[in-house]
Automatic annotation (TrEMBL):
GO function term, MF aspect, one: L-valine transmembrane transporter activity
Location relative to the cell: Cell membrane
Domain of life: Bacteria
Species for this entry: Mediterraneibacter catenae
Name this polypeptide is given: Branched-chain amino acid transport system carrier protein
InterPro entries with a match to the protein in the record: Brnchd-chn_aa_trnsp_Livcs (IPR004685)
GO cellular component: a single term: plasma membrane
Family stated for the protein in its record: Belongs to the branched chain amino acid transporter family.
Keyword Zinc: no
Membrane protein topology class: Multi-pass membrane protein
UniProt signal peptide: none
Its job: Component of the transport system for branched-chain amino acids.
TM annotation in the entry: 9-28, 40-60, 81-99, 119-140, 152-170, 203-221, 233-255, 275-300, 320-339, 345-363, 375-396, 424-444
Gene label: brnQ
GO BP term, pick one: isoleucine transport
Length: 447
């Protein structure tokens, strides 16, 4: 029976890390560090739970379930739910939000500084066109994804990022303990960090990338389901440890930068400030290369995962090559809406999807305790989904969420649902749904 050796596990882990670590993984922790200031360690602890812990559990859940992908896993709730959840999750981490964000972050950090006014719109269009042309080139060769990401793009990214982080941490711009936190991090920095980890979308990606990891492991000759599961978990652990280390270092770098800079409007600007301070004009080049490689490899992984999944969801429909091409074109169009618009509209969707993903992971790990009974899945996910709608409404852009009708709904939810103000109003309903599901299962078995 074929087993992966340590070198092969590290190669798969490198590929998984490369697909995980992209746009949001750089801009959100550095911004969080600037805003959290002296409370950055509490914020970082929360961020690591949702930004590293949940992705690891997602990869592990798919591995131990011995399912081939998210569709099979989520269909434990029901076939229609499985199709709905799988499509929504892949579109969210794919062409609607995460993939376009890869291009806009690359442009914002690396190119935007030399354009202005009307040139900004044209510059973004040209850059995103070239970016997605390159993404499509790599994506149309999915059999080589482990080589491209694991052996080429990922090492390049780590080298350039390492140069920037090492320089910043060896010559700190400020003392973290002396940096006052922003208002949202003065109280409850831990919970703010938890929500900030949502923005990476990695818990969703952990469920989505499973199909790519499993195919890569099979491509190395492993066929036995139990061994595939073990190899998947091992690769997830290695990639998560590396992610956690980089998150902490980047967060520290952001907090220290407050010694000489005010908080930037977004993480892209913060990175540009830091790189310019330590390396001058060369800093812009180092940062542009680092961010573009990071975003490119993630976009390739996402296009590949989305294309493979939709080809499987609709077997009589378009081929993988057509899906990959369509997703690249759609991502290009949405990318040209700009980074601020993408972030503003992605957060409400994430506030709805994350609770569903978390509870699917929880149920997968505890499946054997209730025999995988669909009743438990359905009660739990139903209660979770209803409560998550309120978090979705609360996170809508200000112009929408401030309307009288939505404000009345969210204010009522804040009264009825514990932790709603912190963005976790779904937790108690999810637990209630699980308890009711277990009770109904037991009642039905005794009848």
């Amino acid at each position: 029976m074929k087993k992966l050796n340590m070198r092969e596990i590290i190669l798969v882990a490198s590929m998984l890390f490369g697909m995980f670590f992209g746009a949001g993984n750089l801009i959100f922790p550095v911004s969080m560090g600037q805003l959290a200031g002296s409370n950055m360690w509490q914020a970082a602890a929360g961020f690591l739970i949702t930004g590293v812990g949940l992705p690891l559990l997602g990869v592990a859940a798919l591995g131990i379930s011995r399912q081939d992908g998210l569709l099979e896993l989520s269909s434990r709730v029901g076939k229609r739910y499985g199709l709905f959840f799988t499509c929504l999750l892949y579109l969210t981490i794919g062409p609607f939000f995460a993939i376009p964000r890869c291009a806009t972050v690359s442009y914002t950090v690396g190119v935007e500084g030399i354009t202005s006014g009307a040139a900004h719109t044209a510059g973004l269009a040209v850059f995103s066109f070239l970016f997605f042309a390159l993404v499509l080139f790599f994506s149309l060769r999915p059999g080589e994804i482990m080589t491209w990401i694991g052996k080429v793009l990922n090492p390049l990214f780590l080298i350039f990022l390492g140069i920037l982080v090492f320089r910043a941490l060896t010559s700190p711009a400020g003392v973290i303990s002396e940096i006052p936190p922003a208002a949202q991090y003065e109280q409850g920095a831990f919970f703010t960090g938890l929500l900030e980890g949502y923005n990476t979308m990695d818990a969703l990606a952990g469920l989505a990338f499973g199909i790519v990891v499993i195919e890569a492991i099979r491509g190395l000759g492993v066929e036995e389901p139990g061994e595939i599961a073990k190899s998947t978990v091992k690769a997830g652990v290695f990639s998560s440890l590396l992610m956690a280390l980089i998150y902490v270092l980047v967060t520290v770098m952001g907090a220290q930068s407050r010694g000489i800079f005010a908080s930037a409007e977004n993480g892209g600007e913060a990175l540009a400030q830091i790189a310019g301070h330590y390396f001058g004009p060369a800093g812009a080049v180092i940062l542009a290369v680092t961010v573009t490689i990071a975003c490119l490899k993630t976009a390739v992984g996402l296009i590949t995962s989305c294309g493979r999944t939709f080809e499987k969801l609709f077997p009589g429909g378009p081929s993988y090559r057509i899906w990959a091409s369509v997703f690249c074109v759609l991502s290009f169009l949405i990318a040209n809406l700009g980074l601020d618009a993408i972030i503003a509209y992605s957060m409400p969707v994430l506030m709805f999807l994350y609770p569903l993903a978390v509870m699917l992971i929880v149920l997968t790990f505890t499946d054997r305790f209730f025999g995988g009974d669909r009743i438990v899945y359905q009660w739990t996910m139903s209660f979770t989904a209803v409560a998550a709608v309120f978090d979705f409404l609360r996170a809508l852009p200000e112009g929408i969420s401030s309307s009288e009708m939505i404000r009345n709904i969210t204010e009522s939810a804040a009264v009825l649902l514990p932790f709603s103000e912190q963005g976790f109003g779904w937790v108690c309903p999810a637990i209630a749904g699980l308890v009711i599901g277990l009770a109904v299962r037991r009642f039905c078995r005794e009848m």
